[in-house]
Amino acid sequence: MTKPPGRWSAFWHFIWAQLDDVILVVAGTVFAVGSFIEPVEKFLHLPDDLSPVIVGMLALLAWSQIRSRGEISRFASIWKSARTNLFSLKFPQEYLDAQTKVSHSYFYTGATMQRTITAMREHLIRILSHNGTVRILLPDPNDERLLEMIAETHPNKTAESIRRDIRYAFGVAQALPNDKGTVALRTINFAPSVGINAMDVGFPTEMLMVQMYEFKGKAERAPIFILEKDDGHWFKHFAEQSDRLWDSGTDYPREKSSAADK
Questions:
Q1: Residues 165, 123: contact at Cβ < 8 Å?
Q2: How many contiguous H segments (helices) and E segments (strands) does the chain have?
Q3: Mind listing the pLDDT tens digit for each residue in 6-60?
Q4: CA–CA distance, 137 with 248 (Å, rounded to integer)
Q5: Cis peptide bond prior to 139, omega within 30° of 0
Q6: Which of 139, 247, 231, 156 is nearest to 194 (CA)?
């Protein structure tokens, strides 16, 4: 095991790292003191017109630079760690809170939606009661080769279980009350690389929850992150990707008519 550096080692490391500033402080202090003490002034051969105030201020400036360098180093360290604070290994609380508030529109695309449709059912009913829109885009459950490809990337799914989960999600969506609002279902014929939950896009409370589909991850597929309008370019990036994915889909047969068909 590596022995931690001692006090003197840490001290000399600090001195070496700040060597230029240390020299300025020492030189400024010596010249400032020498300007007041005649023997020292003569020893250093200081010019008569050298102002001790100016020298002292230069020494203070050097000391301030040392402190500023430390603050900059701490800020850089915090910034580096903050770059990845966006990512999570589980669904963020902000996403769970947003589910209970979404009222205007909801879009989902992903692998199966088996868990999400169960958790979102009551919230989808609320959206529809407000004449909102629910759009769901999933892989085609009748495309055997596609389901096998998706199963190959998933740690604990088979083609048959994926087919069952997709049909379950579509079945729950088809059974939603459709006297108000719009329910639209579509399928794609390629394996999704990302899961997206888009809530109330175009409204003040708009939010995206994005889940990247890692290859055969051992736990929840990650990273997972939240994007809001203040995130600017990246919110727009994934919102537009949601629209492109939806446009690439094919309408899924519905068991009964809905507001989307009227």
A1: no
A2: 9, 7
A3: 667 766 666 655 666 666 666 666 666 655 555 655 555 555 545 555 666 666 6
A4: 10
A5: no
A6: 139
Q: Which CATH superfamily is domain 93-261 in?
A: Endonuclease Chain A (3.30.870.10)
Helix-, strand-, coil-residue percentages of the chain, each rounded to 5 = 50, 15, 35
- pLDDT score at 191: 94
Joined together, the tokens standing for residue 172 give 């729950």
Element (H, E) at 189: none
Cα–Cα distance between 260 and 246 in angstroms, integer? 15
Q: Check residues 157 and 78 and name the one with the higher pLDDT.
A: 157
The token pair at 90 is 């589980």
What is the distance between the alpha carbons of residues 182 and 184, in angstroms, rounded to a whole number? Answer: 6
- What's residue 259's pLDDT? 41
Cα distance between residue 209 and residue 195, in whole Å: 8
Q: Given phi > 0 = left and psi -120 to 50 = alpha, else beta, which region is 113?
A: left
| Domain ranges across the chain | 7-82, 93-261
| Strand 133-139 relative to strand 105-109, pairing | parallel
Q: What is the pTM of this model?
A: 0.69
The CA distances from residue 167 to 49, 50, 114, 119, 143, in Å, are 91, 87, 9, 16, 12
Number of residues that make up the chain: 262
Rounded Cα distance between 36 and 52, Å, is: 7
Tokens 């990337």, residue? Answer: 153
Residues linked to residue 210 through DSSP beta bridges, in sequence order: 196, 225
Q: Quick check: 96 and 207 in contact, CB under 8 A? A: no
